[in-house]
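Protein data sheet
==================
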Amino acid sequence: MMNQFSTVEKNTDALGRAIALRLDNDSPPLSYNVTERLRAARMQALAARKSELSIAPAVDLSLSAGQATLTWGAEGGSLWNRLGSFLPFIALIIGLISIQIIQSESNTTEIAEIDSALLLDELPPLAYTDPGFLQFLKVNQTEASEKH
């Protein structure tokens, strides 16, 4: 991967040099003030580029044989960086476990309510499987809502 980036950078630099040479040959001479401002702007741009290039990523991604490997880079990363990178993973695990517990308790409560309603009801459980019973419940609900 490093060869690809260096080749791209070399091609970009060569193109920039070719454009600069063409502009130098075709343009009239510039005044001293303009030349100095351009030189100062170029120095600022080069300084900014050097600072961008000197910043190395804390984590490197290596691809080989269809597998991706995440490494800590040349410096190895500090203990706080490593702990900080695992913190979101730990938060995710805690969140998923919490959701599982809440859902489990909710389902258990619903099942307990249904069981207690079936056991305390006067009708046998087989009545709930009868297709006519659903119609009976709908009629009773409409009558009950009309009375209120």
User: Anything to note?
Assistant: The helical segments are 2-26, 32-54, 79-120, 131-147.
